[in-house]
Amino acid sequence: MRDFATLFTRIDESTKTTVKIAALADYFQTATPEDRLWTIALFTGRRPKRTITATRLREWAAEVAGLPDWLFEDSYSIVGDLAETIALVLPPATRQTDKSLAEWISYIRQLSTLDDDARKAGILAAWNGLPHTERFLFTKLLTGGFRIGVSAKLITRALAKATGQDEPALTHKLMGNWNPDTATWETLIDADDPTADLSRPYPFYLAYQLDSFDDLGAPSDWNAERKWDGIRGQLILRGGEHHLWSRGEDLMTARFPELAQLKDYLPDGTVIDGEVLAFQDETPLSFNALQKRIGRKTVPKKLLTEAPAIIMAYDLLEQDGKDIRDTPLAARRAALEQLVAKVPQTAPLRLSASVTFETWDDLAEARDASRSLNAEGLMLKRKDSPYLSGRKRGDWWKWKVDPLTIDAVMIYAQAGHGRRANLFTDYTFAVRDGNELVPFTKAYSGLTDAEFREITAWVRKNTLQRFGPVRQVPAEHVFEIAFEGIQESPRHKSGVALRFPRMLRWRKDKPVDEANTLDDLKEMLAMYG
Amino acid sequence: MTDVLTFTDRGIYCPAGDFYIDPWQPVDRALITHGHSDHARPGMARYLATDAAAPVMRHRLGEITLQTTPYGKTIRMGDAQVSFHPAGHVPGSAQIRVEVAGQVWVVSGDYKTVSDGLSEPFEPVTCHAFITECTFGLPIFRWTPEDVLTAQINDWWAANAAAGRTAILGAYALGKAQRLLTTVNPDIGPILTHGAIENTNEVLRAQGIALPDTIRVTPETTAKTHPGALVLATPSALGTSWARKFGPASTAFASGWMALRGVRRRRAADRGFVVSDHADWDGLNAAIKATGATKVFATHGYTGSFQRWLADQGYDAHVVSTDYHGEGFDAEEAEA
């Protein structure tokens, strides 16, 4: 694993893309095919199955380090990563074990066949045979989630450099359902045909937020449509089967069983890009309705009738088994319209209608209606644009509505973790209710580093009370909190829960008695909940 | 029995001797553990510090009324007996021992227990109550052994010199910078210093502390005039135009916080060397044990966790709110 640790260190130590790509390309040219494949798998979120629970790992690490559980947890909350915390608290290794990445993965898998005592002995022996970085990486393999600042895009660029293949083809090859048990370096990377795997999705085309109309040219060159507030998905019908992929490459087929009937209406060899929505009476339901269906592998009948799902189709990527991503959007849309027209209204498929407009002012007006339609805003797509891979500027733009905002008072602060250890970055906010302050949300992001430092210094000097890691502070500072949605929540004292709350700005100009009230919040709930 | 020291909103106070230790508000009489700006603040009518700490304090605080003392000498102040003992933090740094009616309390200031080859080595002082910092008071902080660290820094410098890159190392102007200076191998190339660091170097050299030869960076200094150089910079100078004039460079940061991957990445330096002038987890625990104290106050750092840990170990442990910063990992928080 030493070469994998070296790769990791080179990537981790650099902020320069060129250095990271060079490190990966070197590795792809020197490591064994098994290690290479596992590296790609890990860096694209395909981790080996968990064989040992995080709880067990914490217990064992705390025991070996001679720490009480609470102190291990305090440490973990500062470090922010379980594997790193374990690697840091354990006493230095007394041996050096040499195994390749693939060998360590087999080692971990073989542990799953053993009883608890043997597993523990196996893990402790491994920890004691690895220096810090390798120990961290080994534990990462156990806990999963290899987020180390390597995007799939970076992997693709490095692979292109190492193999001489072009990037879009490689991007496509890395999509979908493969893992190192079902694929080899040969079948995945060296083989020519990316559609050999019938469930494999195309890379999603993503847009940046529009900042100005200046460079767009004529409005007539553009197609506008609603940006629906659901889950972006890709529906694949091939070989008599259907597959539904999320943008994060999660296979969601089983979570939305009602979509299976589309096999009866759409021809084989069809791939549609769209939004999965909860939908009733020809109207999208709020994201809250759909949320109940996320995170469930299977769906109870009651939920199927309460929050029935459809695909709101945006684009057609494959027609009659042919990849049509290079044909212009206008032609793809025309083909999509024809397809959807043949599907009965009882089936869970709709076309995301174009929003008609002549001037950018018309469009701004249309955007203002978004929230009442349960949409997040608008999408602008150039009519002659191909369907590209990944987030690209120029041909597609999203134009989201402005977030909802409320002015709130900071009442608790907590230190961040990971990058933000030693800074107070996690705050609890309250609204006024008579003479009371009612907490209603937490927020962690949105301020500059300088602002976080300023608040940190203030919190240190103004702590009223400590509750474990949480500091109560005087209600002096007002912040404008932005959020995307609001819903009723009996679990919260305020009765509401916000969607994606963050700090928009520190309102140093506002005294606390001008912060918003619980009544203001309830009014927002009535309007937008 | 009354407390030897009390904790006020101006700082740590001794009623029997009517003096403060490292106060953060102006007072009449201030005993100072060391010259870092969160411990030695301006505005005190009279200061008392060690002989070795005095030059830096004068350099930083200007015209002050400063009495000095050698380590270990007992001074009578009112009903209190006071003495200063090496804290191993930076040259001249001290723990302050205060004895009143047979009760001994010690204020640690900032300290580290490993020898850095430059500061007077930490000396355990037996006491009843110990007032300790705990900047790195969590078991995730364990410092790299000195010999490994030296090899890491020299290897990094040599590799960059060989590749035609300048090696820029960020470190605090007082303490860390000089400590690194005495560990690096001057045969690799020239050592350039940022003005704030060189000013401190001059003060320390003038008081007889041996440091290797260094070259002060001037507007004319570039990578061309000094190829293969190691540049010692203050943390705040990293990433500025001052640093950019050295052309292709590798930047590194030397701090205890570099033990954490997240912090290392936030600094966006190419390398992080795990080195601190504060005690690590093992150092804190060993130091406290060596005092024989039964009562411990934690002043700054991970005070909440550390207090609970000490209480678990059977100490009568408390947290005290102070205005000390310890080792910040951002330039603005630096021990400048």
Please characterize this protein's 3D structure:
Chain A is of the alpha+beta class and 529 residues long. Chain A is 35% helix and 23% strand. Chain A has 18 helices and 22 strands. In chain A, helix 2 crosses helix 10, helix 5 (69-79) crosses helix 6 and helix 6 runs antiparallel to helix 9. Chain B has a 7-stranded mixed β-sheet with strand order 7-8-9-10-11-18-19, covered by helices on one side. In chain B, strands 1-2-3-4-5-6 form a 6-stranded mixed β-sheet, with no helix packed on it. In chain B, strands 14-13-15-12-16-17 form a 6-stranded parallel β-sheet. Chain B is built from 8 helices and 19 strands. With 336 residues, chain B is α/β, with parallel strands linked by helices. Chain B has 2 domains: 6-140 and 277-333, Ribonuclease Z/Hydroxyacylglutathione hydrolase-like (Metallo-beta-lactamase, Chain A); 146-273, 3-Layer(aba) Sandwich (Rossmann fold), CATH 3.40.50.10710. In chain B, 23% of the residues lie in helices and 24% in strands. The interface between A and B is medium-sized, with 35 and 30 residues.
